[in-house]
Amino acid sequence: MSESLPIKRCAIYSRSSVEKDSRDPFDSVSAQFMACADFVGSQVGKGWRLVDTIYEDRGYSGSHMRRSGFRSLLNDIKLGLIDVVVVHRLDRLTRRLADFQQIMDELNAHDVPVVSVTQQIDMSHHVGRLATNIITSFAEFEREMVGQRVKEKRAATLESGRWQGTSCPLGYVVKNDRLVVDQAESKIVQEVFTRYANKESVTAILNDLNARGIKTKRWRTRSGKLKGGKAFNRNAIYTLLKNRVYLGEVFYGDTWQEGAHKPIIDPELWSKVAALLDTRSRRGESRPSTDEGSIFMLRGRVFGADGRAMSPWLSSAYKGRKYAYYIPQKEIAEGAGASGLPRLQAANLNDRVWSSLRQLLSTPEQLLAHLPKPLTESADFDLSLVVKRLMNLERLSEELFPVHQKQLVKQLIDKVTVHADRLDIDFSLDGLMELILEVLADRPELVRTYRQLYSSAKSHGL
């Protein structure tokens, strides 16, 4: 009787720099997935099994790692949910050699190999690693060459007096690849410049435009999809006021140069507006201090009750002091008081969240109750030991350096929702499990068992 092979949980990662075309459901990402799934199917005899989770990124460049699907993949690898990563080509992971080496270090730390369906390379051997670095270097070179060719094509197009693309600023339309003044829209642009030059506030201009139902530029993509046509916000106003296209200029060759289209704003009005923008900008030109990362340790995790993220904001220096806040997005777009939500001092919010976190760690049973029952009810789960280790961590927490406090907060806090009268704090179950495995690092047999139990429960949706 033959011994059964251990199951290898395989995750497919696919990526495309182009967003999905609604007219073509079978795009590049779909093709990559199918090719990888076929390959995994051919390895069933070796114990390979495809996991249920789909890891993909559409419309993301390989020049960076700020991709939600890719981050989800790395997170599940850290949790021990994946044994093999399968890609169509290695450049789907990244097109930067430095990033590739960082990715491989992370995967190697968790004993997770990468398999490329179209590039049969054994990365456990030094020759295979050399070949991989060469392939990734060429991918990086190819990305840079494509970027340079696009840049040169754009410069040549604009230099010849033609406009590239179907989108253009408010006040113009594209006809025969050239910018032509739209009389009705150009009057709106001139109005905004004139009112700002007369020192009318952006909030007043914004409220008036929205009250009159005036929208941002609406245009159609080459595929026929409508874009734009949204209500104005503060960013749209400032973008309009800083756009030198209205002076009759275009940007190419790393500088603004005279274009072939007619200007909407005369140089005198432009200079007056530019001087006002510069003056108002310098009033609050102080920049975040070096400890901004600590004061905004909850960056990206604070949301208003309306579901929109709250933005970190650092005031200009007043009597030598700066004040850090989280501000509702709606107030940035429409003015103070528009959201009905409070502006929160970052330091106060940090203290409240840190206090809540410490309280839970001091009596961790409440937190542990949220873990999957197949883990906590297992005979191998030592509840008293886990509770003791977490309570010890809480007692030491006040002695942690700010950078370590920040790491703990980012690990355990998933989301803070701000209501008019309260805060809702959501904790990360995956982060809690990571923390438990870290405090039990001296008990590797428990770490392996707990990781397997948690992975199994999560894969079954428990």
UniProtKB/TrEMBL annotation:
Recombinase domain boundaries: 169-283
Gene3D superfamilies found in the cross-reference section: Putative Large Serine Recombinase, Chain B, Domain 2, Resolvase, N-terminal catalytic domain
Gene Ontology molecular functions: DNA binding; DNA strand exchange activity
InterPro entries: DNA_bind_recomb_sf, DNA_bind_recombinase_dom, Resolv_N, Resolvase-like_N_sf, SSR_resolvase
Resolvase/invertase-type recombinase catalytic domain residues: 9-161
SMART domains given in the database record: Resolvase
Alphabetized PANTHER family for the sequence: DNA RECOMBINASE-RELATED, DNA-INVERTASE FROM LAMBDOID PROPHAGE
Protein's recorded name: Recombinase family protein
Organism of origin: Solemya velum gill symbiont
